[in-house]
Write a structure and sequence with these properties.
InterPro entries: Class_I_gatase-like (IPR029062), ThuA-like (IPR029010). Pfam families: ThuA. Residues 16-240 form the ThuA-like domain. The protein has 319 residues and is an alpha/beta fold. It contains nine helices and eleven strands. Strands 2-1-3-4-11-10-9-6-7 form a nine-stranded mixed beta sheet, covered by helices on one side. Helix 4 links the parallel strand 3 and strand 4 (95-99). It is globular, with a radius of gyration of 18 Å.
């Protein structure tokens, strides 16, 4: 199969590398998912750069992106050089999103597994089940009903993502699905289905930790045609980009769309304390001294005025 790489965008909007390579099982829903995300670009003011080419994982290429999204990938889709480049990208404040079988990818690559949160174990047969919303204020879940019925695969994992500092957003309600096998590993309770890391655990000591978001949903073509599911995905993506560690939102970022610096980037002084957001600290610019009320108001006003994205106005909640 020939590798597909979308032409590079000349846009000044935040850029996301949408990686869909597979060496194991390949989901029929991948083209549908790509089309669904691309159709939302103008609505959320983001550009998706779709590729299956592992050669895109170099320092030079990854430096253009505000986030890397592994969409239904499977198997060992990077060589050693690509894995090393991905590690350096994370160390420089790069953000990560994983969807569905991204959890069945690069299972022996430490930085990837830690940034993801947990590795896929198995799933029972596809079925309707109930997802409990555990974090209703999170942008990936704020639009969902407290109990959300989905038709998908109930993923089980080989570890508990909470052990790496992840916060579980969605949980598969055990009373709602049939699983004749039962979990082989301790994945924790309640059953993790989607989660986020404020500071991605894949970063090495001394690096700048961006954000990470993962959801195990997304198996079917029909799922990617469901607006509620798409809002769940786009909410997670928008939250990840608000790490304030990349050029799309921080002129001091060391990765991210370089064209954002001269157009829409929000400067350090707009959104973060002056003393804590140079990209040489271990965590993102949202840490450190508390925001003042004037900083928050100014930052939000600037984001909306500059048109960083409608989704930020719709879904991001500053507390």
């Amino acid at each position: 199969m020939a590798l597909y790489t979308q032409p590079v965008s000349a846009s000044s909007r935040p850029q996301i590398l949408l990686y869909t390579a597979t060496t194991g099982f390949r989901h029929d829903s991948i083209p549908v998912a790509i089309a669904a995300l691309k159709a939302k670009e103008d609505e959320i003011d983001i550009d998706f750069f779709a590729t299956e080419d592992p050669a895109q994982f170099t320092d030079e290429s990854l430096a253009r992106f505000d986030a890397v999204l592994f969409l239904s990938t499977t198997g060992d889709v990077l060589d050693a050089a690509g894995e090393a480049a991905f590690q350096r990208y994370l160390n420089l404040g790069g953000n990560f999103v994983g969807i569905h079988s991204a959890a069945a990818t690069l299972e022996n690559t430490t930085c990837y597994v830690r940034e993801l949160g947990a590795v896929f174990d198995y799933h029972p047969e596809l079925q309707n089940f109930t997802v409990d919303v555990l974090q209703p204020s999170h942008p990936s879940a704020s639009m969902l009903p407290a109990q959300w019925t989905v038709a998908d695969e109930v993923y089980n994992f080989k570890s508990d993502p909470r052990a790496l500092g992840a916060v579980v957003v969605l949980s598969a309600n055990k009373a709602s699905y049939h699983d004749p096998v039962g979990s082989h590993f301790d994945q924790g309770e309640p059953h993790p289905t989607a989660w986020f890391q404020e500071h991605g655990a894949g970063v090495q000591k001394g690096g700048v930790a961006g954000r990470s978001f993962y959801t195990s949903l997304g198996h079917l073509n029909e799922t990617w045609q469901n607006e509620l599911f798409l809002e769940h995905i786009l909410g997670g993506i928008s939250w990840v980009l608000q790490a304030n560690t990349t050029r799309g939102f921080n002129v001091n970022g060391r990765v991210g769309n370089p064209m954002s610096i001269n157009s829409k980037s929000v400067t350090t002084s707009m959104l973060a304390p002056q003393s804590s957001n140079e990209p040489n600290a271990q965590h993102s610019g949202t840490q450190g001294n508390a925001f003042s009320a004037s900083q928050v108001v100014t930052g939000v006003a600037t984001l909306l005025t500059l048109g960083v994205g409608q989704i930020l106005a719709k879904k991001i909640k500053l507390i």
